[in-house]
Amino acid sequence: MSKMCFGGPYLVESCGEILTVSYNQSYEGTYYQFYIHRLEFGNGKGNPCWVKLSTIGDRMLFFENPLGYGHAFSLSASDFAGLKGNCIYFINMIPTSSLGHTRVINVYDVENGETKFIDTPFNRKNHISISWFMPTLNHI
Q: Which segments constitute the KIB1-4 beta-propeller domain (predicted)?
């Protein structure tokens, strides 16, 4: 197995819950393993604690940068055709040489642990300004 690095944790609100997401990644960006935890307050019966989740259901989590900075948000897949729930969508930097990186968009399936590359025009070498935007369902 190649060298691994740890990323996160991200703090994100999702459906009224507070989640943290962290991950392991191979240096080459070919392998990912995500860890999702939900904050439970204990309903007055003890101290708050983090509970590991094995699914996020219909939710999709979006992360701007896997190094633990940038912004993160959550959406319901049922509100957006063509997107799959129980997935983490993230922008990543893959080293291309000792001097450069390529920024790519990936999707991690929480259920089966697989990561897929999403080919878009936004996957660009040494392009710093890739970012998610937050869609709105409100009409003006």
A: 9-109
Residue 140 included in any domain? no
Give the count of domains, the chain.
Answer: 1
Tell me the sheet residues that pair with 118.
Answer: 105
Chain Cα centroid distance, residue 135: 17
Pairing relationship of beta strands 87-95 and 59-63 according to DSSP bridges: parallel
Residue 12's H or E segment, with its range, is: strand 4-14
Identify the domain containing residue 31 by its residue range: 4-125
Contact assessment for residue 30 and residue 42, using Cβ atoms and an 8 Å cutoff: no
Is position 130 within any domain?
no
DSSP 75-133: EEGGGSTT--SSEEEEEEEEE-SSS-EEEEEEEEETTT--EEEE--TT-EET-TT----
Residues 6+ apart with CB under 8 A from 67: 7, 93
Residue 47 lies in a domain: yes
Q: Quick one: pLDDT band at residue 112, thresholds 50, 70, 90?
A: very high
Q: What percent of the chain has pLDDT over 70?
A: 64
pTM for the whole thing?
0.78
60 within some domain: yes
Amino acid 127: pLDDT: 52
